[in-house]
Amino acid sequence: MKQKKSAKIIAAAGTLATAAGAIWGLNFLHKLAAARKAPDLKMLKIEESDFFLGNEQFIDEVNAGKQWLRETTHEDVSITSFDGFKLVGHLYLSDNAKRTVIMFHGFRSNWLRDFGFAAREFYEVGCNLLIIEQRAHGNSEGNYITYGVFERFDCRDWAQYAAERFGSLPIYLDGISMGAATVLMASALPLPDTVKGIIADCGYTTPKAIISRVFQQKSPIPSKGIVSAVSAYSKFAAGFDFDDYSTLDAMKENTRPVFFAHGDADDFVPMEMTLENYEACTAPKTLFIAHGATHGLSYLVQHDAYYNEIMEFFEKYDNAPNCK
Fold first, then answer.
1. Is position 55 within any domain?
2. What is the pTM of this model?
């Protein structure tokens, strides 16, 4: 009798230990995917230098752009998100501004790295720049990165801030990588009428798709099933799961013109994801593919062509009727 009781106790303890281990594992993987500060695991770590592989010649140009942003007069501004977090942006006022461009950086990146190389040229042709620090990044508050699911509402609120501050001046929403997913997802929300267009550079389609891809690239553990389990855990821990919303959902509802861009050498977010977004978009759209560009570097690799097409995009829609 005692032996049977002991066996039951041991079995129960084993079950509890297994469950505790599973919860610990899900929590650990969720932190890797979405926590403000990820565990320091070299196997899954993405270094800034990784983004320049094959395009190392642009490192100095990116660093010069960062320095220009630091040294140029600007105003640090903030809003409060729908869920109570302080969000920070950096506002550069151009003389005789023709438009305002609101810029959203990528996953675990920052406003200086992702926009330094393009910001100066935009600024010099009459663009006010409002460069955002995304939630759970830098000086903005927030505990979790949500891959655009909650960031889309932040984008909406920043657009409202710009509309109230600059009146009838045209507004464009511009994002790189996760920032591109952010602006694409936001496009389906009620936005100020003065938002004239969207610029989406190397964006993905769904949180689940990009998390699965990165996990497959960086981890020797098969990702099938694990990502779904982490997604379910995320709903409990952070209030969102990886299937809550997608750019493909938004593109079915968006009515604003979209400029899509992607490098055909991008092995972080595959170019096919932008092609999916482009195909799903029912609004006026432009597709720019930069030959030889790795992740987030299309503007540098095919600079003249990219710059000219963006300027044409601005000029075409600056004076277009306001969007409803």
1. yes
2. 0.89
